[in-house]
Design goal:
With 195 residues, the chain is an alpha/beta fold. The protein has a single domain, classed as Rossmann fold (3-Layer(aba) Sandwich), CATH 3.40.50. 48% of the residues lie in helices and 12% in strands. It is built from 9 helices and 4 strands, in the order βαβαβαβαααααα. Strands 2-1-3-4 form a 4-stranded parallel beta sheet, sandwiched between helices. α1 packs parallel to α7. It is globular.
Length: 195
């Protein structure tokens, strides 16, 4: 399987790699044209067509909402997807940023890095998360495998408390049934942990 993607930054790409490593490790990742910059909505349709021509079975657009409402950003992005390609496209919009997804379980993150839980419970923990993972400076791309490994082993059922991640997961869950990729049922796992 070939998964194409467009993301905004290192944390976003590392999150996607971690999810791929966890759920579909044999899938090939193909980076789209817009990594590292905000994908203009006007280019979503064109990018979908280009990535489909490159043989993508699944196309993922993952961006940060920053200070916008993530649901509004999502709706605007989805509206630009060509109807004939909607079956192979997943849009993810991180409520604020991908670092918020990484910090959604502050106890797990704090234990991983031997830091105080309070470092990751602020409104925007981006700075603390980047510092913990070393996603700063010119060599931040070299740190992405550490973030991906964290995501691959994280208790993701707890991430469902973040509504933007929950929406992203639900889309991936639906597509996994069509593509033959084995995603774990996070809702089932969560209900077993909290009867």
């Amino acid at each position: 399987m070939k998964i194409a993607y467009c993301v905004e930054g290192s944390a976003d790409r590392a999150v996607l790699r971690g999810l791929r490593d966890r759920w579909c490790p044999d899938a090939e990742l193909v980076e789209g044209r817009f990594r590292g910059s905000r994908l203009p909505r006007s280019q979503i349709s064109k990018e979908c067509k280009i990535l489909t021509q490159k043989g993508a079975d699944l196309i993922i657009f993952l961006r940060d909402a920053n200070l916008e409402n993530w649901r509004e950003v999502l709706r605007a992005d989805e509206a630009k997807c060509p109807p004939e390609l909607q079956h192979r496209v997943v849009f993810g919009v991180c409520d604020r940023n991908a670092e918020c997804w990484l910090a959604v379980d502050p106890d797990h993150l704090a234990a991983k890095f031997g830091r105080n839980r309070a470092d990751f419970t602020i409104e925007d923990p981006s700075g603390a998360v980047k510092a913990a993972f070393g996603l700063v400076g010119f060599d931040k791309e070299q740190r992405e495998p550490h973030v991906a490994a964290f995501v691959a082993a994280a208790p993701l059922g707890r991430w469902l408390h973040n509504k933007s991640f929950e929406h992203f997961y639900d889309q991936l869950w639906d597509r996994s049934k069509q593509l033959g990729c084995r995603l774990e049922n996070l809702r089932e796992r969560q209900s077993q942990q909290h009867p």
